[in-house]
Design a protein that fits this description.
This protein is of the alpha/beta class and 306 residues long. The chain contains nine helices and 14 strands. Bound molecules: zinc ion.
Length: 306
């Protein structure tokens, strides 16, 4: 439909004009009051004992969160447990009763030491609400970006990670805007224009890399050649946090990408890893690794403002 992009653009402009750099909302939290034998607890009770809530529950995994921490439990027998993307051991024996997952109470002692106290860089700070961050998922619509050796399109990976980054940042109290939150095409100038119109405190464009040689891997931060010190600091902060994903780093490099030179405020382009490398292509495709990447990028952004 010919008119739709114009209409969308118009609607976007209206919403932006009204809401400024708005926020995304979270889903409701469900409580579970069931009682069990003392040595086991339900996932909901486990969350309560850790001062967290269940933010996601699927057949394969459960995610617990508070303002500073994310715990991922893979709910198959002896599945791994991660706290802030770091492994803290195994879940041990699990039991499914009445549609609820029961785990050993000893998990509380296993997880608790790895939780950050609410004083680290990732908690909700009063000042965060005055920060406007624009998250740009690279490519989209008729522009698929690179295609991975496993056939995945870059635009989909970028969007999946960007969405998670945006939602993590808004949970931490930042005002967040995405240049696109669906599979649609946006001109590069338009992406920068969104950040400029909102006077964004930081613009972060999210991409996945490609290279003729399949052996090349690792993540790279880009800033414009004439970038401000603030852009370099933000890039350094995101690069440091991303080292926790286990991927190798190519550090911060300069390149005059249009989204970087057209954005007036601090701007960073993140190339998360190589779609032309088989190992990284598989990681970039995996939703749980996408979450780790998103958490690292969000942590790096929080640290920059911290
Ligand atoms: Zn790209």
């Amino acid at each position: 439909m010919g008119n739709q992009p114009t209409l969308r653009l118009l609607l976007t402009s209206v919403v932006l004009a009204i809401a400024g750099c708005g926020e995304t909302s979270k889903g409701p939290i469900v409580d579970d009051p069931s009682t069990v034998a003392p040595q086991t607890v339900t996932i909901y009770q486990l969350a309560g004992l850790l001062g967290m809530h269940v933010s996601e529950s699927t057949q394969t995994h459960v995610k617990l969160k508070n303002s500073a921490n994310t715990v991922m439990l893979f709910t198959f027998s002896d599945g791994p447990v991660y706290v802030n993307a770091k492994s803290v051991g195994k879940i041990g024996t699990i039991e499914r009763k009445d549609g609820r997952i029961h785990v050993s109470r000893s998990l509380v002692a296993q997880i608790r030491p790895a939780l950050h106290k609410p004083a680290s860089g990732s908690l909700v700070r009063l000042g965060n609400s005055s920060r406007c961050i624009v998250i740009d998922a690279g490519h989209g619509g008729k522009d698929p970006g690179a295609t991975s050796v496993l056939g995945t399109r870059e635009k989909h990976i970028n969007l999946a990670v960007a969405r998670k980054v945006a939602s993590l940042l808004s949970e931490r109290g930042f005002r967040v805007r995405m240049t696109r939150s669906s599979d649609r095409f946006i001109e590069l100038e338009q992406r920068a224009a969104i950040a400029n119109r909102l006077r964004a405190d930081l613009f972060v464009s999210i991409h996945s890399d490609s290279f003729p040689k399949s052996s090349r891997r690792g993540y790279t931060m880009y800033v414009a050649r004439s970038a401000s010190q603030a852009s370099f600091r933000a890039a350094g902060s995101i690069a440091r946090a991303m080292s926790r994903t286990g991927l190798g780093s190519h550090g911060t490099q300069t390149a005059d990408y249009k989204v970087l030179i057209r954005t007036r405020g601090p701007a960073v382009l993140v190339e998360m890893g190589y779609l032309t490398n088989r190992r990284e292509a598989a990681l970039l495709k995996s939703p749980s690794f996408q979450t780790r990447l998103a958490e690292a990028i969000a942590d790096g952004i929080s640290d920059y403002f911290g």
